Prior knowledge:
This protein has helices at about 50-55, 80-85, 90, 100-115, 120-125, 125-140, 155-165, 185-200, 210-215, 235-240, 240-250; strands spanning about 10-20, 20-35, 35-40, 65-70, 70, 85-90, 175, 205, 220-225, 230-235. By secondary structure, the chain is α/β, with parallel strands linked by helices. It has two domains: about 1-85 and about 170-255, Rossmann fold (3-Layer(aba) Sandwich); about 90-170, no CATH class. A six-stranded mixed sheet has the order 6-7-8-3-9-10. A four-stranded antiparallel sheet has the order 2-1-4-5, covered by helices on one side. Strand 9 (about 220-225) and strand 10 (about 230-235) form a beta hairpin.
Amino acid sequence: MNTASQQPILKTTDLCKRFGGVFATDNVNLDVLDGEVHALIGPNGAGKTTLISQLSGLLKPDSGRIEFKTRNMTGKPAHKFARAGLARSFQITSLFADMTLLQNVALAVQAHAGHSFNFWRNATLDKKLLDPALSYLETTGLANSAGKQVSEVSHGERRQLEVAMALATEPSLLLLDEPMAGMGSEESNLMINILQKLSGSKTILLIEHDMDAVFTLADRISVLVYGRIIATGKGDEIKANPDVRAAYLGEEANA
C-alpha cells in the first residue's frame, strides 16, 4: 500500500489519560491511514491497553482529541464508535459456547443489521443471515468448522471466530487486540495468513507482541513507551531506530 496518498481514518492529537500521578497516555499523536495495517507495539506497562480503550470509546481521555473519519469522537461511548465503523475484536465479541460458529457469526450479522425481531430464531434459521455469516467464516478459515459448537473448537479457532464476528459488522477500521495471544506457532501462522488476505481491503490497527507477525503484516509501526509514542515508521525504520532498540526491541532487532 502506498501510504503517502492516504488520509488518516483515525487520528489522535495530544491524547492524555492520567491515573493518579501517572500518565498512562502522555500527549499521544497517532494517525492510522485509510487502507493500511498499522501496528502498535510496546513493552508491558507502555500504555497500549489504556490507549486502545480510549480509541474504542471504553475510556474517556482527560485531554486531547480523537478523530475518526474526520469526526470528533473524543469522549463518546463505545457504541458510538461501533456505529461509526470501528470494531474492536474482543469488545464486540460475546461467544456463545453452546451455539455453532455459524450461529455466532449470524448473530453478529444480525446485530449489525439492527434487527432484533425474533432474535434467536432469525440468527439460527434465516438464510439472509447464515449466507453472509458463512462467507465471513470462509474468509477466516473456519468454513469447515461452521457446524461445530464453540465449546468444541481450539483457542486459535476461537480467536479466528472473533475476527469473523468483527468482520460481520462491516467495519471501516478493525482494531485487533493481540489476535495471536496464547497461540502456538502453527495457529499464529494461520492467523498471519488470514490477516494478510485482509490487508488492502480493510484498515487494521494491530496490537501485538509477536514481532514476526508485526513485521510481516504492518505497513507502518508505532512504538509506545511510558505512554508516549517514540517512533512511527516502516518496519526497517523501526528496527534501525536507536531509541526503539534501547527501549523495546533490543539488539536482536537486526537479526
